[in-house]
Amino acid sequence: MESTIIVTGGAGFIGSSLVRFLLESTDRRVVNIDKLTYSGHRASVAPLEKHPRYAFRRLDVADQADIAEVFTKESPEAVMHLAAESHVDRSIDSPLEFVQTNAVGTATLLECATDYWESLPEEDAERFRFLNVSTDEVFGELGPTGKFTEDTPYDPHSPYSASKAAADHFCRAWHDTYGLPVLISNCANNYGPRQFPEKLIPVVILNALAGDPIPIYGDGSNVRDWLHVQDHVRGLWTILTEGEPGETYNVGADVQKTNLELVRTICAELDERVETTDVDEHADLITFVDDRPGHDNRYAIDASKLSQELGWQPNIDFLTGIGRTVQWYLDNLDWCNTVMDDADQSIDERLGTRGS
Ligand SMILES: NC(=O)c1ccc[n+]([C@@H]2O[C@H](COP(=O)([O-])OP(=O)(O)OC[C@H]3O[C@@H](n4cnc5c(N)ncnc54)[C@H](O)[C@@H]3O)[C@@H](O)[C@H]2O)c1
């Protein structure tokens, strides 16, 4: 069997970092399957296009015939499944798109993977792995104390997290019913380069640069746990290569911040790098707006299983990582303009108010 890994969603934020990691830090061939929705862009993987171990296929993970053909043609040793509709606000406006890609798409991929895996010689079948990349949002929300562990019951609140929970349940079902060697990772909020400019961190940076109001939902007290995307993709590789099929691993760096703290940190990083025009400091642009319906109060991840059993540790500290992220956006405004133009997207557009 060729040492090929299928990555789905490899033109997205985390997927494009994962593809880079696999090409730079392993000897594997990478086949990137991506539908190129508004949030996936070839500009995110353009520098990799000529790499001898990289191939791109523009496909929908929910298209069974196309995906089955890729398995037959590429004979992968593993699948790392990241393709998803990923923005909570959009899931509030258009929930069925999330059901289609995240639930139906994952089940389709599992089905194709199982047909392929059952056809493999024993040694190759033993080696095959399917890693489903999921989120801590499936666990719902926490009160003032405590953290999500792998045993926390699922309690999703948004159409996004419900569709990701469905995907995780399908993965367990395919493992328990057919024996497919599936692993699941549930990760905290990621930050880093190439995140589509509709999510909090790029919105803050781009609005601040434009001198526009920086919107914060509610009073900014919602707490998120933050992990640099490069630590995440290293964790995914550790789980894929060292993890036990059938197991779930939480991934996080134990960095809990309120949204207001996060935004203030980004503003301070910007203050060090760029002049403000109409205000004294970038934080003066912070504006509180109506909260998101069903906005989860607090997430915090206990990743001790991953560190104790598989030896993974995050190694990018929060302030360094945020500073680097701010600098990346400053250096790559062309990328922001390209992906926003192609998606016909404006960051001023408020999404996800249905139900409020
Ligand atoms: N961003 C986070 O903080 C975070 C945290 C934990 C887990 N996750 C999970 O990690 C994965 C990647 O997240 P992201 O932030 O990179 O998302 P993203 O929106 O940036 O990227 C998703 C990618 O999937 C592609 N895609 C969407 N529908 C598809 C389909 N039907 N077929 C093929 N490709 C399709 C898109 O074109 C895009 O390239 C998701 O599964 C998400 O649930 C994200």
Helices and strands, in order, run as EHEEHEHHHEHEEHEEHEEHEHHH
Average pLDDT reading: 94
- Which of globular, elongated, flat, extended, rod-shaped describes the shape? globular
> Structural class given helices, strands, pairing?
alpha/beta
Ions and ligands: nicotinamide-adenine-dinucleotide
Largest sheet properties: 7 strands, parallel
| Beginning-to-end CA distance, first to last residue | 52 Å
Q: Kindly estimate the percentage of residues that lie in beta strands according to DSSP.
A: 15-25%
Give the CATH topology of the domain at 4-190 and 227-254 and 301-315: Rossmann fold
By CATH reckoning, the class of the domain at 4-190 and 227-254 and 301-315 would read: Alpha Beta
Runs with pLDDT <50, length 5+? none
Number of strands: 12
Across the major sheet, the strand order is 3-2-1-4-5-6-10
Can you count the helices? 12
| Helix share bin | 40-55%
Radius of gyration: 20 Å
The CATH architecture of the domain at 4-190 and 227-254 and 301-315 would be 3-Layer(aba) Sandwich
CATH homologous superfamily annotation of the domain at 4-190 and 227-254 and 301-315: NAD(P)-binding Rossmann-like Domain
